[in-house]
Design a protein that fits this description.
Length: about 190
């Protein structure tokens, strides 16, 4: 017999024994296995199942509470978001209103400023006209006085005599009538 055949024979005999053990039931082993199983089942049922069930129930309640809290939080978040959106809309409306009021106030201010500037310009023009009229009247009066003095002096030189006051007055009035002062200031000669 060779070594290979011996090993093969040993393997086959070991195989026969192991299959034989599984196939042919041993009643004593079965009873002990059944008793061990029942005992393990009773111990597990009395001590393990309540603890496992309680732990599972606690876990279920915790998950349900977490879901409830998440739903409440989600609802609150939706409310806060809605409130935020409403406030944002209100803020935008207020901002638009403020811009509109500022624009309107700017337009009113611009209009008032233009009106004030126009009034000031008109007042300045009127004051300038009054000043020009006053200066024109003063200049005409000075010219009249000068003409009167020159007329008296010229007459005295031509006539070589001193004129009395009535003659001077008559002579000045005649000279002034002959001059056209209306072109200078629009005034008629005064007596």
């Amino acid at each position: 017999m060779t070594l290979a055949t011996f090993i093969l024979a040993q393997a086959q005999s070991a195989e026969d024994e192991s299959s034989n053990f599984l196939v042919s039931p041993n009643v004593g082993l079965m009873i002990w296995t059944l008793l061990a199983f029942l005992l393990a089942m009773l111990v597990l049922r009395k001590y393990a199942w309540p603890a496992i069930t309680e732990a599972l129930d606690k876990r279920q309640r915790a998950i349900e509470e977490s879901i409830d809290v998440a739903e409440r939080t989600r609802g609150e978040a939706q409310e806060v978001l809605q409130e935020y959106r409403e406030r944002l809309r209100e803020a935008r409306a207020q901002a638009d209103e403020i811009v509109a009021r500022a624009r309107k106030a700017g337009e009113v201010h611009e209009r008032e400023t233009l009106e004030k500037a126009k009034l000031q310009r008109e007042e300045l023009m009127e004051q300038t006209r009054r000043d020009i009229d006053a200066e024109t009247r003063r200049a005409i009066q000075e010219i009249r006085n000068e003409v009167a003095d020159l007329t008296v002096m010229a007459t005295e030189k031509v006539t070589r005599k001193t004129l009395d006051e009535d003659d001077q007055k008559r002579l000045v009035e005649e000279a002034l009538r002959e001059l056209d002062f209306s072109a200078l200031g629009g005034d008629q000669p005064r007596n």
